Amino acid sequence: MTPDTTDVKTDRRRARTRAALLQAGEALFSAQSVDAVSIDDIVLAADVAKGSFYNHFADKEALACAIAGAVRAEAEAEIDAANAGVIDPARRMARAQAVFIRFAVRNPERARAMVRLFASAPLPNAPMNRGVRADVAAGLASGDFRGLTVESGVLMAMGVATVAVSRLLDEVEAAPATALCRDLIFGLLRGLGLPEPAARVLGDEAVDDIFRETH
Questions:
Q1: Are residues 191 and 170 located together in one domain of the fold?
Q2: DSSP state of 173
Q3: For position 120, what pLDDT does the model report?
Q4: Is position 119 within any domain?
Q5: Are 135 and 96 in contact (CB under 8 A)?
Q6: Does one domain contain both 149 and 201?
Q7: Same domain, 107 and 196
Q8: Is the pTM of this model over 0.85?
Q9: Domains in the chain: how many in total?
Q10: Of 29, 138, 167, 179, which sits with the fewest C-beta atoms within 10 Å of its C-beta?
Q11: How far apart, in whole angstroms, are the C-alpha atoms of residue 129 and residue 52?
Q12: How far apart are alpha carbons 93 and 43 in whole angstroms?
């Protein structure tokens, strides 16, 4: 066996171990808080040696951050794809909310872990909020949004998304995703300063388009 072959096998083994830890952590953190989950729980679920955990993560908080970041990045990639070529900030905002809610419907365990773990989500200047911050700023500059600051607009958008996902993941009589999505997008756009007719039209268009594949 050549050194290069050994390195490749080692890298593959490390990648499999890391993937197993991430998958196990995601399942555990979607059901319980970080404090309630032990490293022993994680390595048992991942079926790896405890020492292997520390080859990849300093502690369970580091694992939690990696999981939350990966899930959020996946959701953001879907939002970017849905908004490719869309310039109007209000329409982008409506579509982003619809995609985020659709992501939760399709990936309930991942979404539950993300909502539970991402304590930094409400921070307007957090790197993960760069896109929504840019859309709020553009809407204020164009006059579509009014009567608020960029920070408050970002907080509103993130709050609506988080509440919507949390509600949809509630197993007790959760509202249908599309109905909830329409109402919350309408409320968000009105809160950002958009006139009522435009807010309703944009919300309905976003939901109809984004959720088309699920009908």
A1: yes
A2: S
A3: 47
A4: yes
A5: yes
A6: yes
A7: yes
A8: no
A9: 2
A10: 179
A11: 33
A12: 40
